[in-house]
Design brief:
alpha+beta; seven-stranded antiparallel beta sheet
């Protein structure tokens, strides 16, 4: 009986925590959803230098956070359609994985939530909320209360994804804009 006690505790521990993680899209699915007309995607690893990081911070009003960014260029034949940048931000406690599609001029094309791991706030995946980002630039309308509405019950997720999109728009503006 004493040998079974540790096994019982392990089994009960598994039942007491509920997993909320939901994977909605892979990276490949996200990039195809954002640029459905693209017939090729080419990895474009992005490394920011110190001067670019300062520019990103000045434009976005946020820390650049990282020098390395996972980026993919989307093409229709030989014509550049834009970029997809992949990122993770913390919601309330857990990471939110998302992809931001930007046109070659650094205008937001689309935002896709790839994975959501929180118990609340999943409403940020709603197409109506994500549609608010379309056509915005780092200098126009990419802040909660200034172009992007908040969702009650998803306040932190909204704020952190919005900040992340603004940071990514600044990165593309600084490092990739054509």
């Amino acid at each position: 009986m004493t040998k079974l006690a540790p096994l019982s505790l392990i089994a009960l521990a598994g039942f007491s925590s509920t997993a909320f993680a939901t994977q909605y899209l892979t990276a490949e699915q996200a990039q195809q959803t954002i640029f459905p007309e693209a017939n090729s995607f080419k990895p474009l690893p992005l490394q920011l230098d110190a001067a670019q990081m300062k520019q990103v911070e000045k434009l976005s009003g946020l820390p650049a956070r990282s020098v390395a960014w996972r980026t993919v260029a989307a093409y229709k034949d030989d014509r550049l359609l834009g970029y997809v940048v992949f990122d993770d931000v913390v919601g309330k406690f857990e990471l939110i994985s998302y992809a931001v599609g930007l046109q070659a001029d650094a205008t937001v094309q689309q935002v896709e939530i790839m994975a959501y791991r929180e118990s609340h706030g999943f409403e940020i995946r709603n197409a109506n909320w994500r549609r608010q980002f379309v056509g915005k630039t780092v200098s126009h309308g990419l802040a909660i209360g200034d172009g992007i509405a908040n969702i009650s019950g998803a306040t932190l997720s909204c704020a952190h994804v919005t900040d992340g999109v603004r940071r990514i728009a600044a990165i593309v503006q600084v490092a990739l804009k054509k």
